Amino acid sequence: MTSQPGMPARRAAAPVAGRVVRDPEVPGPRLALVDLLDRVLAGGVVVTGEIVLSIADIDLVAVSLRALVTSVSALDGPVPVAQQAAQRTAQQAGS
Amino acid sequence: MNAMTDPQGIWVYAVAEAVPDGSLGELTGVSGGPVATVAAAGLTAVTEQVPLAEFSEAALQRNLEDLGWLEEKARAHHAVIDAVAQRQPLVPMRLATVYHGEAGVTGLLTGRSRDFRALLDRIRGRREWGVKAYAAQPAAAADGLAGPAGAAKPSAGAGTAYLNRRRHERSAQEEARQAAMTSTAEIHDTLAGLAMAFRLHPPQAPQLHGNKQPMLLNAACLLDDERAGEFAAVVRSLAADHPAVRLELTGPWPPYSFAELPELTPAGDPA
Which of A9, A58, B175, B183 is 20 to 30 A off residue B93, Cα-Cα? Predict the structure, then answer.
């Protein structure tokens, strides 16, 4: 697992053992993306829903997420797109 | 792309109180440029100049549907917010908040300063943690027995046995489902009781979270920093007490789920 210099190390939770899985310090890129989108898109990622973004002195624009869902589905198995994007971001943010 | 002549917009990451000079020096933003600030009304917006060729309203509509683009920008947006949030309380702005110019950002800070201050007070010294619950793997028997139907040539007796087995599997699955629902309700109540603030996100769709079992709970909890260890211990003990579900803890996050401005309206009505 490559480290992600662009993502500041998560402050460690007290180590969580047992049945709590997936160390929060090393989230899989795809899972972390979904968790992130839940938050930065405000209102979560809903399969057939829409997001609203604020832009241009507060015009509201609705954007369909259907294409996103389709793309994510296509990432099952090896996830070159997600990883490449993560690495690009890491390099970009880390440089 | 020529940054000198192309029209630029201002991407807003977050709003904080005074942001010390030099604390943003090493950060790189969503368009690869330096992270800057716009100050007004005793507040500071953490910003970046972005080319409207990529970040205008029309371009965003197109680009946000491109998963590679969305992922890259979401991670870059988060990286900046997270870095600043390590040092001071902030109100994160949602992804793709872009203004035409500094005047728009100044107007945001000035017009909503009371809202921003209330949010900053709310999240000061606190962070967000995520807890997701999935149904646990069904009993191994349920998977193992449900082999390809008709793999063996069924005699009359074998057919009856097969049907009995299927019935048994179904009731076992139903029990597991009920147990998982009960556990989820208890976990929900425990977390909600412990957190300073608590919010449910919609459970993620299976094609997004990638797990075989359905997600039953997608909670965000706002916690005092000094209680983070205690919280993790509670999650651990909930996990031990509820084998019907599998828990996943994420965080700490900047307070994304607890610092949303009351909806921005096109009118921009002055208070």
Answer: A9
**d(Cα B15, Cα B7) in Å, to the nearest integer?**
24
Closest approach of chain A CAs to the CA of B99, in angstroms?
A: 5
Token pair of B153 as six digits: 């040539």
Paired with B160 in beta bridges are none
pTM, two decimals, is 0.73
Q: Any CB–CB contact under 8 A between A50 and chain B?
A: no
Amino acid at B17: E
Interface mutation target, options B67, B221, B245, chain A, most CBs of A under 10 Å: B67
CB contact under 8 A, B71 and A89: yes
pLDDT in tens, B70-81: 889 999 999 999
Alpha helices, DSSP H, located in chain B: 52-55, 57-63, 67-85, 102-111, 113-123, 140-145, 156-194, 206-209, 228-241
pLDDT higher than 70, residue B50: yes
| Residue type at position B227 | R
Selected residue with higher pLDDT from B80 and B212: B80
Q: Is the pLDDT of residue B140 over 60?
A: no
Q: Give the other-Cβ count within 10 Å of B94's Cβ.
A: 20
Beta-sheet pairing, B215-224 with B245-253: unpaired
Q: Quick one: angle between helices A29-40 and A80-94, nearest 10?
A: 70
CB A90 within 8 A of CB A9: no
What 8-state DSSP symbol labels residue A12?
P
B170 φ, ψ to 5°? -65, -40
In order of B1, B25, B209, B257, the CA distances from B83 in angstroms are: 28, 11, 26, 17
Return the DSSP state at B28.
Answer: B
